[in-house]
Write the structure tokens for this entry.
Amino acid sequence: MASKGFSADEHNTYLEDYTTSVGPPKVDETDIGNRDDLLKETYKGLPKLRAACILSWSHKAAHLPSYSDMLEEVPRVNKNLFFESIICSGVDGILNLSRSDPTRISTGFGSQTYFHAVGGSGPLTFISTIRVGDCHLIDPKHNPNGRMQRLIEGALVEGEWEHLVGAIGQVINKSEYKAQIQAGYVSFATSFANPVSGTSSPSNSRGMHRASGPNPFTRGPSSGGVTLNCHDIIPIYDARKYTQSFRKLVPDVDQLDRINRELPPGSCAVVAYTVNTWGASLPINVSFNIKWVMLLGIPGSRG
């Protein structure tokens, strides 16, 4: 995808609620010949999409993993969940944006800026399977202004990424839009917040950072709304040893044990998020707002 610099804009834009009025192309323009051989059959029957492009603030070239790459890089990944999480179009109202029909998704109903079902609803929750880059879900990342944010950076596998970008473009009816992405890694993040007085980020003797925010093992909901606050809990679930189906797991993900450490780069994980649009000028901005993360495997020979 193209990478062009831009400056951030903090004003909301309200898009019209509509079912995409332009029909799908005769050929799926998101198929650029990079789909993994192990997944090719699973693309049959998916909606044909127009190509779209995310404009990045970074000029670094994107290096997306393939599905086969991930099987080699994370040899002890939960292979069943890895495959099922990629090909699942959705379950119990949670949608895989790379595999969903974008004509059923809209934004702007009642001056809302988030992605919702056509005709209006609360924000939809989406899932994507990623290779993890930086992870700041336990100890927030601080920006130069002193504000902090919890986030995980992730790259989708080849084929799934192009379909996701095209699906979003079709929902907002734009061939180009902006997002927080660098070298193919998308930021799934909370909103920014000011530090809480008296908190710190102590480390234990093994170099693991302890949580400086809410207790990540606390059950129950965090704050409502489209975007979680930096002071909210972002659950990290451990699905490495789960033996049943992905479709059975997702509606009851809280049954899994939780992890109280940052995920190492190269890990395979499923991220759940909402999508929001903002900006007073074109191209508009799209944000990916983290809800929870499910670990499927970590790189190398480790378990």
